[in-house]
């Protein structure tokens, strides 16, 4: 079951003192590893994420051939998946989708996918409200089950519905943003394990540093290459994965995720 954090409930969370939330998260996370059940088993490869422009072959726990471009006529709806491959004990995540607001807007989302696959999961939706038409959309979720039910393997993190607005072509990108111009990203994709630690962060900034694959939309015209692409290969067998270097209890999942979200939103509002 997925719950969306919005309205009075979200306001109550946002009003909580951030230092208290983070301290509580750290205190509880020390107890989590001994409580955590294992997710779906499988050989562990390097974790990667991306956008599949044609989600027809995907399920919450499987990623099929990946399409790099979605085509639609103005006024039509289209779906894209934000996916993860080879995750290990994932409990919470946040991703920012960057898009051209002249071409599309985000009208719906479903985050009760990969995180909701294990029995007993309780997916808490911390995404931005919809519709979204400003060119940057935060989609995020945490599994708040107790005992925790972290997920391992591959699947769909979120399925997003877009509405085509006007002819043209543009990128769909998993974004990093430096909001205070200090040379370091303030928002970007991040993933938390059942122990409360970042997943895929190699430089200590909390953000995911592994392979990311982006996509495109073509409105009013067919895509240049309409065939499906594997997760590791593009046309002619050349890798199209983009390396972006930059960036368990309900208390751990929700407090940790909301705490980082509030910190970044506070920076954004301070610059407004």
Textual characterization of the structure:
With 272 residues, the chain is of the alpha+beta class. The protein has a single domain, classed as Immunoglobulin-like, CATH 2.60.40. It is 17% helix and 32% strand. The protein has four helices and 13 strands. Strands 1, 2, 3, 4, 5, 6, 7, 8, 9, 10, 11, 12 and 13 form a 13-stranded mixed β-sheet that branches. It is globular, with a radius of gyration of 18 Å. The C terminus is likely disordered.
Keywords:
disordered C terminus, 13 strands, Immunoglobulin-like
In short:
This protein is an alpha+beta fold and 272 residues long.
Question: Topology of this structure?
Answer:
Elements: E1 2-4, H1 7-15, H2 18-29, H3 32-35, E2 48-52, E3 69-72, E4 77-98, E5 104-110, E6 123-125, E7 136-143, E8 151-164, E9 168-174, E10 190-193, E11 211-213, E12 215-219, E13 242-243, H4 250-271
Parallel strand pairs: 1-6, 2-11, 3-12
Antiparallel strand pairs: 2-4, 4-7, 4-8, 4-9, 4-10, 5-8, 6-7, 9-12, 11-13
- What sequence of helices (H) and strands (E) makes up the elements? EHHHEEEEEEEEEEEEH
The span between the termini is: 35 Å
CATH topology annotation: Immunoglobulin-like
Binned strand content: 25-35%
Q: Low-confidence parts lasting 5 or more residues at pLDDT below 50?
A: 6-43, 227-272
* Major β-sheet annotation: 13 strands, mixed
Q: Helix tally?
A: 4
CATH architecture: Sandwich
Overall 3D form = globular
Number of strands: 13
Proportion of helical residues? 10-25%
